[in-house]
Design brief:
This protein has about 325 residues and is α+β, with helices and mostly antiparallel strands. It contains 8 helices and 11 strands. The protein has a 5-stranded mixed beta sheet. The longest helix has 21 residues.
Length: about 325
């Protein structure tokens, strides 16, 4: 009989970080890596700043042989040669999970957003422009950049192409908390995944700005949001100037539908109020409201609230 093989092998741990115990494993099927963490209890110097679900971790469906019944996991379907990058992201996650969790529910400390976004742009704006890689700010940060009165974001989402996702991983490699990885099933070696995700925490071990990105076929100009199943559109939104640098930002009409689809009613209402003041593009908004992304009653509520001047004059 062949020797018995465990479904995964331990690569690192138990390691402390942010009130948690961490383990890193290499998994056999599906082939990839997993970050495991559990409340460290009396072994930690501090209590966790929040629940890991806010960062995309989840309890496994069965018992975890590393973290026990209270284990949270996040897996990345990547080949063995990606271990150095995975290990670096694992260690940075341990060191910065505290501020990442705090900023998932609280505004970042003064100056943290500015410092983190300045460093991010310094690393990505020039190379992405020089290489003609499309990218765009999406999510709540997009509404904030376009002047909707929301709190300073603790995270910025970016949409790009699959190859753009890989390039962002290279440009932000020192800050990675998630290695760039296929967002669905693993893919054969040497082929490009249909879609890829990654994340970085740009700053220090005490404070920083989380940058998450998704690469989808068609890139930033082809997606409603960074999520799957998004309808297309013809062109990216007009850039917003930030400290003299043009930042491509998703149009507010698209962020409105994304927020409403995600159940973020308060954010959607604030976007509608802003569009009522500055105008909106009916050529873009009308087909989104008529499409299958929104329940009819949600779309009707948005139509009823839109009362300002329409037209492609969005700020």
């Amino acid at each position: 009989m062949p020797p018995f093989e465990l479904p995964s092998r331990l690569l690192s741990g138990p390691d402390l970080g942010g009130g948690f115990l961490f383990q890193l494993t290499r998994d056999r099927e599906p082939a990839g890596f997993t970050f495991h963490l559990q409340d460290a209890g009396t072994d930690a110097a501090a209590r966790p700043a929040g629940v890991p679900e806010r960062l995309g971790f989840a309890h496994p469906p069965g018992a975890c042989m590393y973290g026990g019944p209270g284990c949270w996991e996040k897996s990345f379907l990547l080949p063995e040669p990606e271990l150095p990058r995975v290990r670096a992201a694992y260690n940075r996650t341990r060191f910065v999970i505290g501020p990442m969790l705090r900023q998932a529910t609280e505004p970042p400390p003064p100056g943290v957003f500015e410092d983190g976004w300045r460093e991010t742009l310094a690393r990505i704006a020039g190379p992405l422009a020089a290489e003609s890689i499309p990218w765009e700010v999406t999510g709540p940060a997009a509404a904030w950049f376009r002047g909707v009165p929301l709190g300073v974001p603790g995270e910025v989402g970016l949409a790009t192409t699959p190859s753009g996702a890989d390039r962002l991983g290279e440009l932000l490699e020192a800050y990675l908390v998630e290695p760039v990885h296929p967002s669905g099933a693993s893919v054969p070696a040497g082929t490009e995944p249909a879609s890829s995700d990654g994340a970085a925490f740009v700053g220090t071990f005490r404070a920083g700005l989380r940058i998450g990105w998704s690469g989808r076929p068609g890139g930033a100009a082809g997606a409603l949001s960074a999520g799957p199943g998004s309808p297309g559109r013809a062109a990216p939104g007009r850039p917003v100037m930030w400290e003299g640098i043009p930042v491509p930002v998703v149009p507010l009409e698209i962020e409105l539908v994304r927020s409403a689809r995600g159940g973020e009613a308060e954010r959607a209402d604030r976007i509608v109020d802003h569009l009522n003041r500055v105008g909106w593009d009916p050529r873009l908004l009308a087909p989104l409201l008529d499409g299958p992304e929104l329940a009819p009653e949600v779309a009707d509520r948005i139509r009823a609230r839109l009362s300002g001047p329409s037209g492609p004059v969005q700020a």
